[in-house]
Amino acid sequence: MTELDARRAEMLERHLARRGITDALVLDAMAAVPREEFVSPDLRADAYADHPLPIGDGQTISQPYIVALMVQAARVRAGSRVLEVGTGSGYAAAVLAAIAAEVWSIERMPLLAARAGELLARLGYDNAHVRQADGTLGLLEHAPYDAIIVSAAGPSIPDALRAQLAPAGRLVLPVESPSGWQRLLVLHRPGDAGPGAGRADAGWELESLGGVRFVPLIGEQGWQPNGTQPGSL
Hints:
Elements: H1 3-16, H2 24-32, E1 53-56, E2 59-61, H3 64-74, E3 81-85, H4 91-97, E4 102-107, H5 110-122, E5 128-132, E6 145-150, H6 159-163, E7 165-176, E8 182-188, E9 205-212
Parallel strand pairs: 3-4, 3-6, 4-5, 6-7
Antiparallel strand pairs: 1-2, 7-8, 8-9
């Protein structure tokens, strides 16, 4: 067993299983994806440490526990069609692609989008597709999605993402209050959602998984590049 293998095994047991990650599909995906490929060479030794790591352009690769928690909360399964907002390094997209049928991932920064797309292709994740776009608007051409995961915190839940969620789908994302406190939320769309069910007060179920810290979600339905855009759930 190499040093990285040992650190991966420690991540799975100590940082995931002991902290409530019980979904076997998620644990298997986290074990299979080589996280060291998604960080710079000088950070490879820390790839499986349970904290974020910088990936350039002011962005980070989320800590393993948070990635696993979000994928588990989204209840991604073998036949799932998934939308990810905030590709970053491409690591979470790879974890999702190791489980789901198809993954579409949106990144607003052209350099990160190109780099992640090339890396995912090189590693053989042919069912993960990266697009450079405004993630707050989703990706209507491939909707609806069984799960949507957002890896950046906005002032509210974007209406476009709600609308692109399939019946019985789950949307997992951090939302930031005006005071700066972020909560990781799970929005579950009822299986019989119909007209008028586009808001959380119209039969949708909302759950909080606790406090988190993510980079800002910038876009038309997120924070604006030149200021803030307060919103409500």
